[in-house]
C-alpha cells in the first residue's frame, strides 16, 4: 500500500514571466524581516527574537528551486529567467550579508545569552549556529569601517556576476567539431551513429558536440593523432570566452582578501575548512606530487613505449614526446593490451535500465530505506521522481524526502554530473519536520538504433558517487537547515561519496549490477578480475593530473599579482602532469570549479580521498553490503551533517583519529610503507 507523504512534492510548472516576480517578492519579505531584527533593542536580542535560522531557511526554500531551472529546463526563456533570478538572489545575498545592523543584533544576542546563563542551556548545534552566524559577519568584514564595507559589497556583487556568467557560458556552450569518417577511424560505430551526419562539398562529414558522450570516445579511440589533437585543442578552447572573466574574478578575490586582512584568498577560503590555511594546501600537494612523480614517470615510459611501437606499425612519425591528447588513448590501449580489457565490451554489461535500479537497490538495503517512484510534475518528461521512506515504515512518520533523477543529455542542460540539494531538512518552529529534496543531474549516453542506453564503467562509478551525495542530503537529520547534509567543510564533502565508489570495484557488487544487454548474463569472474586490476593502472599519471588542477587553483589564489593564466595553465600541466601540449590552449576557461565554489578548494578532492580510503578500509571492506555497517555510517557520518566538527564525526565512525595509511596503500600497494 502507498502511504501519503506528510509533505507534498513541489510543482515544476513555473513560467518564465513569474520567476522574477516571485524572487522580488521573496527578497522584499526577507528584507522586512531583517529590518525587524535590526530594530530590536540590544537588550531584547536573543535566540528566539532573532529567529536565527528561520529567515535563511524560508528564503532558500523558494529561491533554490527557481534558480535550479537554469541547469535543467529545456525552455531557454525559463533558463534565462532562472539565471536572472539567481543574479538578484546573489546580489541580495551580498547586501544582506553586509548588514551591520543585523550583525550587531547577532553579537548582542550572543552577549545576552552568555550573560544571562541561557548559553549553557543551548544544545551543541544551537551554540554552533550562533557562533557560525557571527563568524559569517566577521568574515564578511562587518567589523570593518563603513567605507571598506561599502567597497566589499560592490566587489562581492561584481564577483558574483562574473561567476554566474562563467557558469552560464558553460551550460549554453553548444559548438560542434567536424570530422570525416576516415579521421574518426577507431571510434566505435555506435558513438559515430550519434553524431550529426551531413554533406560538405562532395564528402560526408560528422559533427560532434563537446559533451562527454560525444568527445571522450574521440580522445580514447581515434587512431589518428591529428584527430585527437584537433579534438583536444577544440575542447580546451571551447570556453575561451571565459578567460577574461576568470582574470577579473581573480583580481577581485585578491582585493577582497586584502581588505578583509588575509594574506591571500586561499587563506580566507580555507580558514573554515579542515585544512585551515593556504600553506597547508601547498604542503599537502607538494608532498603528494613528490610521492607520485616517480610512479608517474614510470607510467609515462610505459605509455610512450606503446606509442612508439604503434607509430612504427602505422608508419607515423615519432618525435619521442608524450602529448596530452595521447594520454587517454594510450591509457586505454595499455589496459586493453596488458589486461586484455575492452572498455566497449564492459559497457555492454551496464545497460542504464539495469544499473540504475540495482544501484538504488544496493543503497536501499545498505542504508535501510525504500524508494517509491511517483508520477508528479517534473521539469522534463525524462525525469524520474521518487518518494523516499524508512525501509519498514507503516505510516507517514517514516517519510524521509524526495529524490529526482535527470539522467540524459539535452540541449542547454548542465553538462556534467552533479547533485542539487534543492531543499534541506530541518525542524520547523512548530516542532514539525520539513523534509529534504535532492536532484541528481547526469549525462548518460542515450539509446542508439541498435543498442539500448549503456554506461561505461566510469559512468557507473560516477553514478554511485553522485548517489552518495543524494543520500547525504536525504538521510542527514539536523535541527537547522544550515547544517543539513552536504553542508560540511568543502574539503570533507566529497569523502562520503568517494568512499562509496569502492563498491563499484567489489566483485560481488559488480556481478550484482551487471547484465549483458543481449545475453542478460552478469560480468564473468574473469572480466571482473581484469576490471578490478585496471583501477590502479597508470595511477601516477591519473593523480598527477589531479595535482595539476589543484596546484593551478592554489597558485592563482596565493599569487599577489595578475599573470598570463593561459601560459600558466599550459606550463604547469606540462611540468606536473608529465604530458606535453601543442599550441597554448585557454583550458582555464573550462575549469568550472574555480568559479563554482571550489576556489582554493580543488585540493579537497584528493584531501578527502584520504578520509574516504580510511573509512572504507576500516569499516566496510570486510563486508561492504552489511546493513549493520551501513547503519553505523548513516548514524555517525550522514545524520550529523555539518552540525558538529567533521573530525568528530570521523573519530566517532572510525573509533580513532583518521590517518593516510589506507590511502597510500591503495595507491602504491606494498611500497607505501616506505613513503
UniProtKB/TrEMBL annotation:
Gene3D superfamilies assigned: Collagenase (Catalytic Domain), Endopeptidase. Chain P, domain 1, Neurolysin, domain 3
Record key words, sorted: Hydrolase, Metal-binding, Metalloprotease, Protease, Zinc
Keyword Hydrolase annotated: yes
Coiled-coil residue spans: none
Entries under InterPro entries matching the protein: MetalloPept_cat_dom_sf, Neurolysin/TOP_dom2, Neurolysin/TOP_N, Pept_M3A_M3B, Pept_M3A_M3B_dom
Peptidase M3A/M3B catalytic domain segment(s): 221-666
Presence of keyword Protease: yes
Cofactor binding note from Swiss-Prot or TrEMBL: Binds 1 zinc ion.
Domain of life: Eukaryota
Cofactors demanded by this protein: Zn(2+)
Annotated function: Cleaves proteins, imported into the mitochondrion, to their mature size. While most mitochondrial precursor proteins are processed to the mature form in one step by mitochondrial processing peptidase (MPP), the sequential cleavage by MIP of an octapeptide after initial processing by MPP is a required step for a subgroup of nuclear-encoded precursor proteins destined for the matrix or the inner membrane.
Family statement: Belongs to the peptidase M3 family.
Annotated protein name in UniProt: Peptidase M3A/M3B catalytic domain-containing protein
